[in-house]
Amino acid sequence: MNNQHAGAVGVIGLGAMGSGMASSLRRAGYDVHVFDVRPEVAQKFAAAGGTVCSSPAEIAAACEIVVSVVVNAAQTESVLFGDNGAAATMKPGSLFIMCSTVDPNWSVALDARLAERHILYLDAPISGGAAKAASAQMTMMTAGTQASYDKAGGTLDAMAAKVYKLGDKAGAGSKVKIINQLLAGVHIAVAAEAMALGLREGVDPAALYEVITNSAGNSWMFENRMAHVLAGDYTPLSAVDIFVKDLGLVLDMARATKFPLPLSATAHQMFMQASSAGFGGQDDSAVIKTFPGITLPAGKTDAA
Predict the structure, then answer these.
(1) Residue ranges of the chain with pLDDT lower than 70?
(2) CA 12 to CA 19: how far, in whole Å?
(3) Dist. CA 37–CA 28, nearest whole Å
(4) Active-site residue, from 132, 151, 175, 177
(5) Helix, strand, coil shares of the chain as percentages rounded to 5?
(6) Neighbours of 216 (CB within 10 A)
(7) Is 177 one of the catalytic residues?
(8) Alpha carbons 131 and 134: distance in angstroms, whole number
(9) What pLDDT does residue 6 have?
(10) Which of 38, 102, 156, 288 is the 20 to 30 Å CA partner of 190?
(11) Mean pLDDT value across the chain
């Protein structure tokens, strides 16, 4: 992998996932250029090796592969077509890799818009969390033309342990990611419901956590997120408002074909309630704070 160079690679968005992906590319021997709306974050990355760019346009002028790891479609639009956007300076035949969770129809339309400029595109949402991104162990759900994969070269494998090729047209990757988010959001919501019931019934929460994580009722989300609840630490690794957005996308996709998703709808309302109660910027496990009549384990953020 270290020898599979494709020129400089740009990473736009150095949040929880993007910073780890940029570091993984750097470890694999790529010349990594970065941009983030927070200059200090980009400077910190570059201090360990890499090049800071002042705008998406500057990254696109320097790199034939641009990886966008921003929050949503609106931010991706800004990255590409906003002031100093990447699309204006990307060379014909260069590649834009889109890693956000978005409406699949929007991704299909973006592919067509970039094709008009002779820019290759990969629909490539990601999953796995910050730790897996930092260790190149995350999952990528990709779709695009063979030409796009050829252009990507070894960059995908440098960032992810599992790179799924889900189709030769944009949109398939985004559909699979949205279905993953259906499960993730419902699992977090039901994990919170179970822990809340345990607290209400006077069960020792640490004991409940130990038993469930070694029993058939466990899920990855219960094990991961209820540890945050036990610690009383709602530092946002993935915020409540992310699932307001993502479960909204789930419901939008299903609504278009009049397909019922009763559990997704309920979970979406739970995250909406948590957000409207003021917890939108907290870790998504804070959805548990909407349950009445329970005393949550105290932690460092509760005094704020």
Answers:
(1) 1-6, 300-304
(2) 9
(3) 25
(4) 177
(5) 50, 10, 35
(6) 5
(7) yes
(8) 5
(9) 47
(10) 102
(11) 95
